Amino acid sequence: MSAGTQFAAAAGAVVALPARLVEPVMYGLQRLLGIRRMPWVFLLPNLVAVILFALLPVFINVFYSVSGSDRLFPWDRPLVGGANYATLFDCDNFLDPSTCSRDLFWRALGNSLVFVPVQVTAMILIALLTAICLNRDIRARGFFRGIFFFPVMLSPVVVALTWQWILQRNGALNGLISSAGLTPVNWLVFPNTAFFWSVFVTVWAHMGFYTIILLAGLQAIPRDVYEAARMDSATPWRVFTRITLPLLKPVLLVVFILAVIRSVQTFDELYVLTGGGPGSATMLMVQYIFEVGFASQPRNFGLAAAASLLLGVALLIFTGIQMRISRSGRDD
Amino acid sequence: MASLTLDKVTKSFGAVEVIPGVDLDIKDGEFVVFVGPSGCGKSTLLRLIAGLEDVSDGDIRIEGDSVVSIPAADRGVAMVFQSYALYPHMTVRENLSFGLENIRMAKPEITRRVTEAATLLQIEQLLERRPKQLSGGQRQRVAIGRAITRDPKIFLFDEPLSNLDAELRVMMRVEITKLHERLGNTMIYVTHDQIEAMTMADKIVVLRKGVIEQVGAPLDLYNHPRNLFVAGFIGSPRMNFVEGRIEALGEHTITFAADGLPPLVLDGAVEGAATGAPVTLGVRPEDFLVSHAAEKGWPATVSIAEQYGASSYLHCTLPGDRPVLIHEPGQSKAGRGDVIHVAPPAGRWHLFDAEGLALGNPRLS
């Protein structure tokens, strides 16, 4: 026996050891429960995790939203019914946040309603464009794929700090601008530029992920369909609109749903980059929830829970609509 | 309809030379089949003609005009792909009309052409379906239909039948041949299946490693293969080969000898034969005369006798462990272990020299 095969045998034995230890236990369980109940044994670890960390918090959240005070433990909290929701909706004029008792909630909601469509549209357009470029026979394609995916692997705080360093008043961008003889701009101090950079940085940080999904979708389109289109005198634009887009539709839909959910959840990058400012110009829903529930004193868990529940319901409705659209797309 | 000329066409992918140089003339209205084993460059050659690949050097002329710098869509050729390459999200009708819409043809003319092609291929009732709702044979028809609507000068087929089952393949073979008779266009058809080549072609082009080995009518290639490769490739089951030497030359006979085999006197003469020269004798399975009794020819031990009913194939072994396949018309009396005697009749044999080139055709006096 060569050293290689000896090593392989030893490694195999090590790998097999847990299996040999577990095997008698499993057989015992199967004798005890019967083979039809065995799937539950294998599902149990995952089920426990999902119930403990996903389902249970949802129910706890519902309870918090209908209970008051700044006490943490549920048994210390008095029930207040719909009072938290009433507070959120306490407005004279829903189009003017300053007439609301919780004006920040409505400002954050308004910001999210602008941020999400703009960011998702920009994200998908840029990711699609990048994926199309990376799908071509260009030099150093693997390198560029890596480069575009790289920001996805960065911690959101690192992303935000990097861009803060670039965008702050004495930052790298203004350094470049002033060395070109132009007037530096205090990017993060004005609402409009801060909002623009919020969109830009979050797109930059996440587009690699969607680019990879779209690239996989593009590569799944058979090459000879494109060759047939070439023989069929299709211009590049018609190839894109009549071949690529329709065949990419299922993947685009998945990307769209993921991007919207992710966009609604945007928090960490902007919290570090702008802190929701200037004023409340870049404060989105999740940051509002965080501020109300955890950052400000006294902590208003009830209000935060009510706001996050509303957000969850909105996302649920949105996903439902998306699924219906995707299903009708599959039928035709 | 158009003639096609390939003039010293070469193609390299990077450092790999796939087609070292091809010269070929295809006449207007001919049905030409490119045949060869996988990787012989036949599909590449077709794609060069289509314009899906650029030639590295040389010229391609359609009706005398060079097309090497003309994009695929404007060469007046249409291609039927091996995978059909139908647009999966479009109906059959949209698949057929897409190319015509792209050149901004008038709607009524598009409708007329689509209807005409659909009628010709009997797919009218499928026009509103999607490719995935069609069977393999129907998809094949749609792919051909898409080529027909474009009314090309030259049709290109890239192994179009290889994804169909055996029965359907025979049917489509006949249909494509009929289609060629009806349309009269020049057609170039690529296949690795020599039976398709034999049954469909006006002219077969046998390719190996990007080089044309022989061009000719199917029976020309069958009866007069220019070299060992063509002899072995064309014809099914393939020709039997026995290596040996010329022992003696008579006036109208050649005596062929191989180690362990009794000398065989072949009736007929060939040019370029010399006594003592190492040669390979080629005999097609159906050319062997079988005698069950007389001790004439080579003794062959039957290892398997396949009875097809109308004919029989005897898998035999000659002395020296040389396998040989013999076709016997009718139902053979030979069984496993029997020894039969086989020899080719006058003129029904081929001799190849040490380089594998045929030594001319056997002439009978």
UniProtKB/TrEMBL annotation, chain A:
<feature type="transmembrane region" description="Helical">
    <location>
        <begin position="146"/>
        <end position="166"/>
    </location>
</feature>
<keyword id="KW-0472">Membrane</keyword>
<keyword id="KW-1133">Transmembrane helix</keyword>
<dbReference type="Pfam" id="PF00528">
    <property type="entry name" value="BPD_transp_1"/>
</dbReference>
<feature type="transmembrane region" description="Helical">
    <location>
        <begin position="239"/>
        <end position="261"/>
    </location>
</feature>
<keyword id="KW-0813">Transport</keyword>
<protein>
    <submittedName>
        <fullName>Sugar ABC transporter permease</fullName>
    </submittedName>
</protein>
<keyword id="KW-0812">Transmembrane</keyword>
<comment type="similarity">
    <text>Belongs to the binding-protein-dependent transport system permease family.</text>
</comment>
<feature type="transmembrane region" description="Helical">
    <location>
        <begin position="194"/>
        <end position="218"/>
    </location>
</feature>
<dbReference type="InterPro" id="IPR051393">
    <property type="entry name" value="ABC_transporter_permease"/>
</dbReference>
<dbReference type="InterPro" id="IPR000515">
    <property type="entry name" value="MetI-like"/>
</dbReference>
<keyword id="KW-1003">Cell membrane</keyword>
<feature type="transmembrane region" description="Helical">
    <location>
        <begin position="113"/>
        <end position="134"/>
    </location>
</feature>
<feature type="transmembrane region" description="Helical">
    <location>
        <begin position="301"/>
        <end position="321"/>
    </location>
</feature>
<feature type="transmembrane region" description="Helical">
    <location>
        <begin position="41"/>
        <end position="64"/>
    </location>
</feature>
<feature type="domain" description="ABC transmembrane type-1">
    <location>
        <begin position="109"/>
        <end position="322"/>
    </location>
</feature>
<dbReference type="InterPro" id="IPR035906">
    <property type="entry name" value="MetI-like_sf"/>
</dbReference>
TrEMBL record, chain B:
<dbReference type="Pfam" id="PF17912">
    <property type="entry name" value="OB_MalK"/>
</dbReference>
<keyword id="KW-0997">Cell inner membrane</keyword>
<keyword id="KW-0547">Nucleotide-binding</keyword>
<feature type="domain" description="ABC transporter">
    <location>
        <begin position="4"/>
        <end position="234"/>
    </location>
</feature>
<dbReference type="InterPro" id="IPR012340">
    <property type="entry name" value="NA-bd_OB-fold"/>
</dbReference>
<keyword id="KW-0813">Transport</keyword>
<dbReference type="InterPro" id="IPR017871">
    <property type="entry name" value="ABC_transporter-like_CS"/>
</dbReference>
<dbReference type="InterPro" id="IPR015855">
    <property type="entry name" value="ABC_transpr_MalK-like"/>
</dbReference>
<dbReference type="InterPro" id="IPR047641">
    <property type="entry name" value="ABC_transpr_MalK/UgpC-like"/>
</dbReference>
<dbReference type="InterPro" id="IPR003439">
    <property type="entry name" value="ABC_transporter-like_ATP-bd"/>
</dbReference>
<keyword id="KW-1003">Cell membrane</keyword>
<dbReference type="Pfam" id="PF00005">
    <property type="entry name" value="ABC_tran"/>
</dbReference>
<keyword id="KW-0472">Membrane</keyword>
<dbReference type="InterPro" id="IPR027417">
    <property type="entry name" value="P-loop_NTPase"/>
</dbReference>
<dbReference type="InterPro" id="IPR003593">
    <property type="entry name" value="AAA+_ATPase"/>
</dbReference>
<protein>
    <submittedName>
        <fullName>ABC transporter ATP-binding protein</fullName>
    </submittedName>
</protein>
<dbReference type="GO" id="GO:0005524">
    <property type="term" value="F:ATP binding"/>
</dbReference>
<dbReference type="InterPro" id="IPR008995">
    <property type="entry name" value="Mo/tungstate-bd_C_term_dom"/>
</dbReference>
<keyword id="KW-0067">ATP-binding</keyword>
<dbReference type="InterPro" id="IPR040582">
    <property type="entry name" value="OB_MalK-like"/>
</dbReference>
<comment type="similarity">
    <text>Belongs to the ABC transporter superfamily.</text>
</comment>
